[in-house]
Amino acid sequence: MSDAVIEHRTYGNWRRVQSVGLLGLGLAGTVILFVGLIVCVVAMMVSLWVTLGCAVLLALVLAPLLMHDRHNRNLVQRVTARGSWARGRSAGQHLYRSGPLSRIPKGKCLLPGVLAQMTATEAKDAYGRPFALLCHPWVSQVGIVLTCAPDGAALVDEADVDNWVAHWGAWLAGLANEPSLVGVQVVVESAPDSGVRLRQEVYGHLAPGAHPLAVAVMREAVEAAPAGSASITCRVALTWSMASRTEGGKKRTVEEMALEIGQRIPSLASGLAPTGAGPARAMTVAEVAAAVRIAYDPAVAKLVEGVGAEAAEIGWEDAGPAGAQEAWDRYRHDGATSVSWVMTEAPRGQVFSSVLANLLAPHPDIARKRVALVFRPYDTAAAVRVVESDRRDAIFAASGRRVGRARDALSLKAAERSAEEEATGAGVVRFGMVVTATVTDPEALGLAASAVGTLATTARIRLRRAVGAQSATFAASLPLGLVTSAHLRTPQAMREAM
């Protein structure tokens, strides 16, 4: 009798969006190359020295585009980031002060930076339950935040985990048919458990006539539990565009979006249950404000949790920090310091469903850690264009070299497989990741950064510290549904062409 063979399911087949060009240049570099060659040919009719000068100028322009670091960023992108940071610092944009002694109207603690104009209004869903509608007026987007209670994968059969992953993929694929949806964000945050909620739960259920020994045991358990325990929260933020669905129509108002989104919340929340996310519900304005306030000032966590179910003492206008200062590689806010990273390379090859387990789990060297997975679903028409464009680019890259590379062959194979899967009904999404580590002691920042690097290695991903953009990256990791690409001045097509 032979032993049964257990097959472990693996996942992968993702590709990084890249612009294809000649000699390792992107589309923009290739266009500059051809234009420069034409100019050189025309200059030959004038003078040889003019031609030589044009050739030298062309080489100086193309050289920065060919100099890439290990995160695939060329010299132009790095110099541009450094110049933007220097210009913002000289203008004082790296400093923020709020509160009673600041210039903020009414002495409020508003959100800083890219979140400054965000507003939150209370609305009702289809069942009459309140939810927070977050509005980004600068980019005409609104969003909601769902809080979940994941079951966890401990002591769960692998077949059940595979079903969770399958339902999660189906939920993401279904978002392609969600009208006006522009982004999805999953934020998993780990932090030390203050024990306030446990204390309220236990003490609130003690019977008046309970045995003294039982009461003493429960009290001892409550006091000892927070010492080594951790709290893990999971939130899902969805963002919609306020643009009209009809061509030439007026932009929809916040009231119209609240009514339309409120009707969809029950189905969106119930769709998360088969994914292992547990029961999901929309967060209220008070809950979102409390979560953001704790992120900026972890010291208020006990105060917010101590209010219990009525955690409405912190309003939206007081959710921001009293003071913040952005440095080149870190971000100080109230009594904490944070460092944020962005993912530059997903795991190569095939991975198991537990590839991010260590990265999401609490770590003793990091006081608070947030891992934000960002998704951008494509509708059916856009998905067809994306997969076919990637397939053509992969074919061009594989055939554009005299000696083929194994990486180009695998990329072509992955692109063809993606096109086949999309043709059979699979969804297409772009995804990214933002990791933020927060410590209350600045001396422990180096140890926390080293821990994040180790966790990224175990997850087989490559992270880049978001130098020069720590404040914006910190905001992108908050469960607020911030679509960062919509806030950039450089068009997306131009960024991809670089």
SSE layout:
Elements: H1 27-44, H2 48-66, H3 75-90, E1 95-97, E2 119-124, E3 130-136, E4 141-148, H4 158-174, E5 181-192, H5 196-204, H6 212-228, E6 230-241, H7 254-270, E7 281-282, H8 285-296, H9 301-306, E8 323-326, E9 331-333, E10 336-345, H10 357-360, E11 368-377, H11 380-399, H12 406-423, E12 429-439, H13 445-458, E13 462-465, H14 470-476, H15 492-497
Antiparallel strand pairs: 1-8, 2-3, 3-4, 4-6, 4-7, 5-6, 5-11, 8-9, 9-10, 10-12, 10-13, 11-12
Helix pairs in contact: 1-2, 5-6, 11-12
Rounded mean pLDDT score: 84
Largest sheet: 13 strands, antiparallel
Euclidean distance between termini CA atoms = 60 Å
User: Which range best describes the helical content: under 10%, 10-25%, 25-40%, 40-55%, 55-70% or over 70%?
Assistant: 40-55%
Indicate the proportion of strand residues: 15-25%
Oligomeric composition of the shown chains: single chain
Please tally the β strands and state the result: 13
Helices and strands, in order, run as HHHEEEEHEHHEHEHHEEEHEHHEHEHH
Task: Give the helix/strand class.
Answer: alpha+beta
User: Can you count the helices?
Assistant: 15
Work out the radius of gyration: 26 Å
| Unreliable parts | 1-5, 307-312
What is the overall silhouette?
globular
Describe this structure in words.
The structure is a single chain. By secondary structure, the protein is of the alpha+beta class. Helices cover 40% and strands 18% of the residues. It has helices spanning 27-44, 48-66, 75-90, 158-174, 196-204, 212-228, 254-270, 285-296, 301-306, 357-360, 380-399, 406-423, 445-458, 470-476, 492-497, and strands spanning 95-97, 119-124, 130-136, 141-148, 181-192, 230-241, 281-282, 323-326, 331-333, 336-345, 368-377, 429-439, 462-465. Strands 1, 2, 3, 4, 5, 6, 7, 8, 9, 10, 11, 12 and 13 form a 13-stranded antiparallel sheet that branches. The longest helix is centred in the C-terminal third of the chain and has 20 residues, at 380-399. Residues 1-5 and 307-312 have low confidence and may be disordered.
